[in-house]
């Protein structure tokens, strides 16, 4: 299983970023996939997680209305669009997949998002 994340960076508050995750090596129909993030000194927490069929499994209230997820079946990619970014969105963002969406089995390498005020 491979999850290759990219797209992090530094923006000012109110800005946007787009993260992308290329997934391979597993049967997408059997797994939940999505994005998690980790703040300094905190544990990883889900941002948005869904089944490849499109069923939404989890969507953090803290990003609702600002972040959106999309997938490209042909390219096996899962993108996270981050809009209206805030300084408290700063953290490392991970693409993850697993049979239990709350406890992913596989993690990408993480990509840093930094939002300045």
Mean pLDDT rating: 94
Order of helices and strands: EEEEEEEEEEE
Distance between the termini: 37 Å
What about the largest sheet?
A: 7 strands, mixed
Number of strands: 11
Number of separate helices: 0
> Could you tell me the radius of gyration in angstroms?
13 Å
Helix content: under 10%
**How would you classify the helix and strand content by structural class?**
mainly beta
Q: What amount of the residues lies in strands?
A: over 45%
Q: Can you tell me the residue ranges where pLDDT is under 50 for at least 5 consecutive residues?
A: none
Give the overall shape. Answer: globular
What do these coordinates show?
With 117 residues, the chain is mostly beta strands. Helices cover 0% and strands 54% of the residues. It has strands spanning 2-6, 9-12, 17-24, 32-38, 45-51, 56-59, 67-72, 77-82, 91-98, 106-107, 111-116. The strands form two sheets. Strands 2, 4, 5, 6, 9, 10 and 11 form a seven-stranded mixed beta sheet that branches. Strands 1-3-8-7 form a four-stranded antiparallel beta sheet, with no helix packed on it. A hairpin with a 4-residue loop joins β5 (45-51) and β6 (56-59). The protein is globular and about 40 Å long. The protein starts with a strand and ends with a strand.
Topology:
Blueprint: E1 2-6, E2 9-12, E3 17-24, E4 32-38, E5 45-51, E6 56-59, E7 67-72, E8 77-82, E9 91-98, E10 106-107, E11 111-116
Parallel strand pairs: 2-11
Antiparallel strand pairs: 1-3, 3-8, 4-5, 4-9, 5-6, 7-8, 9-10, 9-11
Keyword list:
117 residues; mainly beta; 4-stranded antiparallel β-sheet; 11 strands
């Amino acid at each position: 299983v491979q999850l290759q994340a990219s797209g992090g960076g530094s923006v000012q508050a109110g800005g946007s970023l787009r993260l992308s995750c290329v997934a391979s090596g597993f049967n997408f129909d059997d797994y939940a996939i999505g994005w998690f993030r980790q703040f300094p000194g905190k544990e990883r927490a889900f941002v948005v997680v869904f089944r490849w069929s499109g069923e939404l499994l989890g969507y953090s209230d803290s990003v609702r209305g600002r972040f959106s997820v999309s997938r490209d079946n042909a390219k096996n990619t899962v993108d996270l669009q981050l809009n209206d970014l805030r300084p408290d969105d700063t953290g490392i963002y991970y693409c993850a997949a697993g049979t239990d969406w709350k406890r992913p089995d596989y993690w990408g390498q993480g990509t840093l998002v930094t939002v300045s005020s």
